[in-house]
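Reviewer comment 2.1 asked that we show a complete input and output for one of the modelled complexes. We chose the iron/sulfur cluster case, as it is the one discussed in the main text.
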Amino acid sequence: MAVPISQMWTVATYVLKKRLTGQMRYPLVLMLEPLFRCNLACAGCGKVQYPPHILKKQLTPEQCFAAVEECGAPMVSIPGGEPLLHPQIVEIVNGLIARKKYIYLCTNALELKRRLHEFTPSKYLTFSVHLDGDREHHDFSVCREGGYDIAVEGIKEAVKRGFRVTTNATFFDGTDPNNVRGFFDDVMAMGVEGIVLSPGYSYEMAPDQNRFLGRARVRRLFRAILSNRKKTWKFNMSPLFLEFLMGDRKYECTPWGSPAYNIFGWQRPCYLLQDGYAETFQELLDTTQWEEYGVASGNPKCANCMVSCGYEPSAVMDGFGSLSGFWAMVRGTFRTYKDQHALNLLNEPMPHGPSSLVKISSSRELEETNA
Ligand code: SF4
Ligand code: SF4
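Response of the prediction step:
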């Protein structure tokens, strides 16, 4: 695992305090979406489909700070949209660093190199760069030729300037595990701290609905990718969550572990579904019918979900919540997961070929929205 000790210590003591005070539901990572607009239009994205008047809106720094303080999570992920398009993103980031929050600024890195001088390296700030595979696969995934090369330039410059950098990949149906393993080598050679990955979630709003994976196929794909792993690969994720993706562990979803706040308020129940909004975090905790979500609930919207925002908090709470969980986490950090069956999977043909590119909107429309 590639997470620094100071950050692990902060999270571990936070989880222990919550357990000792008997709190059953508590947040680990706040998903703070300061805006939905973006300079890309990826086929699997469920955010950039909002109408232009919504895409023009954004949270103020004060709204961001109030949400962070109210929620109290030790980590803040800033997805979007593209956060670097927010005119006050530097003020937001600096305000969160001053509050000693570990920030993951999720960016497609089209603007990263140009904007880096505005930020200061800190143990609290990580640029989490969206990179879905090698040049061909990433450009296909984000529907933009040249996107990979620009992102890699941004990554290299950020690493050179001493920033913490991770890459963040979402894998859809048709993903070739051999290709992903080669991609991991490429990414680690760029000098990043670690890799973050997740299966795609079938957003109802995403234009290409044929790309999403069912649970059995998620396990098969991640077993092929993550077994027999190289010691040079570092993951900025809980090893227990990776075991969950590989089918070695069963977890229920803990959506309150990664609550989402955006221009509409506190999203119910999670970053992915939209069953209404609460005005305050406490209201979200108290009034959401949590038993109606997760695979065990039978809710069809959750049936195929294994994404990190729902299940990584479950893995982290397990890892820091008991001695056996902690031992499994330490062991998982150093294991290479030798598995002959998984090696054989690498030689089998992909169950589905890659789906076709979906163009969402013209660059002209995007320019108008971003204006
Ligand atoms: S980079 Fe792609 S997935 Fe991320 S917000 Fe923009 S369009 Fe959506
Ligand atoms: S299972 Fe997935 S979609 Fe359902 S509540 Fe959990 S994170 Fe959200």
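DSSP finds 15 helices and nine strands in the chain. We note this here for comparison with the apo prediction described in Section 3.2.
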